[in-house]
Design a protein that fits this description.
By secondary structure, this protein is α+β, with helices and mostly antiparallel strands. It is built from six helices and ten strands. The longest helix has 68 residues. The mean pLDDT is 77.
Length: 331
């Protein structure tokens, strides 16, 4: 009887351990897919957040220029020394603008706020779209087609009108007095918003103009958009895993940036081979937990068996004592 009970306990313990192992093996076989899907969803969220930050940054620069253009004393701003002191400007606005250039009605740059752009002073830009557009439409304008050497620049411009007092809207009826410009370095946008989500050692990115299909900014180790566009689907908000351009299975996510009449797209690509450590880390952690659970179960059953054997031994001694007492006629 005693051996049968021990056998039953061992059998039950083996069944429980087997069930735990089976469940974890099934889970382990799916864990890579689960981790990859989680990485994909995280990348999509981060891509959308970065795109929204870039959009907000540029639109805020535009709105700040419009706000400045409504002040009647804009012509008295002491920015003609190109000293880089934006204190007087940031006392009136939140401060995404890092530089200002003022252009007169004939298209000549006459003032700047930063020594970095002092070489612009004296240049005539009357034929540039970022001067003509605000002059002809009375609306602010964003031009992302500017290339300064190897660097990309975004020039935001807003028209200036003659005004004698602050108005809630630009004084379109006043005489055209020129434009205000602010230059946004694309590399600055990369440092602020793209670099935190696109680790150069693991991921690639593209910032493109959807209308012109021109690449505004990209990782060094990836081709221009025009060369790989057939490998990157044109649907909105990519969220796929596909075999991409020799990189193997790759997570591709995207988010659009709406800037007035233009639409840009931020695309982030992460080859799965570059995130193998993250997947292996989760798998190893899973195996460690499985081993720990099995050891706990085995230890628990050893403890129960030990307790059971001890109780059987005590019971056996009590039975013998009872028999002895009966023989002595004490019971």
């Amino acid at each position: 009887m005693k051996s049968n009970r021990l056998l039953m306990m061992l059998l039950v313990s083996l069944i429980i351990i087997g069930v735990v192992i089976l469940i974890n093996v099934i889970s382990f076989s799916n864990i890579e897919e689960i981790v990859i899907n989680q990485l994909k969803e995280n990348q999509l969220t981060e891509t959308g957040f970065a795109a929204k930050q870039i959009e907000d940054h540029i639109l805020q620069v535009r709105d700040e220029l419009v706000t400045l253009s409504k002040f009647p004393d804009i012509e008295t701003l002491d920015i003609n020394k190109c000293s880089g002191d934006m204190t007087i400007v940031h006392e009136s606005i939140e401060g995404k603008i890092s530089n200002i250039l003022r252009v007169d009605k004939d298209g000549t740059v006459i003032e700047c706020s930063s020594p970095i752009y002092s070489n612009y002073v004296g240049i005539n830009i009357k034929n540039k779209e970022y001067f003509k557009a605000p002059k002809e439409t009375n609306e602010p304008f964003i031009d992302n087609s500017i290339r300064q050497g190897f660097n990309r620049q975004i020039i935001v411009s807003a028209p200036l009108f003659e005004t004698t007092e602050y108005t809630p809207y630009p004084n379109f009826l006043g005489q055209f007095k020129g434009v205000l410009l602010s230059i946004v370095e694309v590399n600055t946008l990369y440092d602020l918003y793209i670099h935190p989500i696109a680790d150069p050692e693991k991921a690639f990115f593209l910032l493109i103009n959807l209308k012109t299909e021109e690449t505004t900014l990209k990782s060094n180790n990836i081709d221009e958009y025009s060369a790989i566009k057939n490998d990157v689907l044109s649907e909105k908000n990519l969220n796929i895993i596909t075999d991409f351009n020799g990189f193997g299975e790759t997570i591709i996510t995207s988010s659009d940036i709406i800037l007035g009449s233009e639409t840009w797209r931020l695309i982030v690509l992460t080859p799965l081979k570059n995130v193998g450590k993250e997947i292996s880390s989760v798998q190893n952690r899973h195996l460690f937990i499985l081993g720990f659970v099995i050891l706990v179960i085995i230890g628990g059953f050893i403890f129960l068996i030990t307790v059971y054997q001890s109780r059987e031994e005590v019971q056996s001694k009590l039975d013998k004592a009872q028999v002895t007492l009966e023989k002595l006629g004490i019971n």
